[in-house]
Design brief:
Blueprint lengths: L2 H9 L18 H7 L10 H13 L5 E2 L7 H6 L3 E2 L8 E2 L22 H17 L4 E5 L3 H9 L1 H10 L1 H25 L3 E5 L9 H18 L4 E4 L8 H5 L5 E4 L5 H8 L4 E6 L1 H7 L2 H14 L3 E4 L9 H23 L1
Helix pairs in contact: 3-5, 5-8, 6-7, 6-8, 7-8, 8-9, 13-14
Bound molecules: zinc ion.
């Protein structure tokens, strides 16, 4: 199988020759930026540099996918949020102290939303990667869900307070913001994306499982129906309490955090959605050695997790050595399985 075939089969929970390493979120590091001369902030704003940095996931690290949308703020910039683009060793952020919207009526998707430089560069990067690697590697795009956009455009606190005080108004807001998710997703599919990550930060520590059910499950089901490629939902934190709902959305996969054990997560989703994850970032990949990475990779493989990846966008200072240990450990595990089956 090619890497692309492997990823797409695993996203459909079909048989694979070996478990793919597939990163739904960023694999960018400072070391990789220097290696290919494509650094933040330009690698977040210029399509050619985005593509060059994303390609290293395949060419340097040996993953089965490439993913050029390193940040979570491309469309927020196009929606009009004030941005802080930062330097090569820091993530760009939205200045949430100066939110752009306060009420549902304020929400509007600008007519230049898809031609804005910060969405255009994503489309250009996907086109470049598709042309260069499209036959062999899965090209993954990313479109942010309305809950995440709510944080960026209303400010986290205001948005969460509104969801508590006025659920009806919150639904109206989500419904208006989801237009952005669909438009940007469709444009990336047209540009050549094989699959899309859909982060929607109803994260374990901020929002309950009941909130997921009330505000998001139906909308996520709608995204799965409307966007014509496999969708990978990304939510950080402890999410076992909402995985049953997530498994019923019709999305292809859920990108899950190391705060959830692989085995318990596989049991909850019960073959209704693929899981991708869940190698710990802040401790294992960032601060420990390849041996500890290996232990976590094997725990996921033993549990039957369909695609192996870091749990979220990796810290920019993560070592190449630790990242390479992910595909190496996957290959080693499969070699051992083959031997034990053969003997
Ligand atoms: Zn995350």
């Amino acid at each position: 199988m090619t890497s692309r075939e492997r990823v797409l089969a695993a996203l459909s929970r079909e048989p694979v020759d070996r478990t793919p390493c597939c990163n739904p979120t960023s694999l960018a590091t400072v070391e990789l930026m220097d290696l290919v001369d494509a650094r933040f902030p330009d690698a977040n704003r210029k399509g050619e540099q985005m593509a060059r940095l994303a390609a290293t996931g395949y060419t340097e690290l040996g993953f089965d996918s490439v993913m050029p949308v390193f940040s979570i703020i491309q469309e927020s910039s196009a929606l009009g949020c004030l941005m802080q683009w930062e330097g090569k060793d820091n993530w760009p952020t939205v200045k949430m102290s100066q939110p752009i919207w306060r009420e549902p009526d304020d929400i509007s998707i600008p007519s230049n939303f898809l031609t804005h430089p910060d969405t255009q560069c994503v489309l250009e990067a996907i086109r470049i990667l598709k042309k260069e690697f499209g036959e062999e590697v899965a090209v993954i795009g990313k479109t942010m869900g309305p809950w995440s956009l709510g944080y960026h455009c209303f400010g986290v606190e205001r948005f969460l307070l509104m969801s508590h005080d006025d659920p009806g108004k919150t639904m109206v807001c989500l419904d208006k913001m989801k237009e952005s998710t669909i438009l940007f997703g469709q444009a990336q599919i047209e540009a050549g994306a094989d699959a899309l990550t859909l982060p929607d930060h109803a994260t374990g520590d901020l929002v309950s499982g009941e909130y997921y059910e009330r505000f998001l499950r139906e909308m996520h089901t709608e995204f799965a129906a409307m966007l014509a490629v496999p969708l990978i939902l990304h939510i950080c934190g402890r999410t076992v309490d909402r995985m049953d709902g997530i498994a019923r959305t019709g999305m292809a996969a859920f990108h899950f955090d190391s705060k959830n054990r692989p085995q318990e997560s596989m049991e909850v989703v019960d073959s209704r959605i693929a899981l991708v994850g869940n190698i710990n970032n802040p401790e294992t990949l960032f601060a420990r050695s390849p041996e500890e990475v290996r232990v976590e990779v094997r725990e996921n493989l033993d549990a039957g997790v369909q695609l192996i990846a870091p749990e979220c966008a990796i810290p920019l200072q993560t070592s190449i050595e630790n990242l390479k240990a992910i595909p190496e450990s996957v290959r080693e595990w499969h070699r051992e399985k083959a031997v034990s089956v053969g003997s």
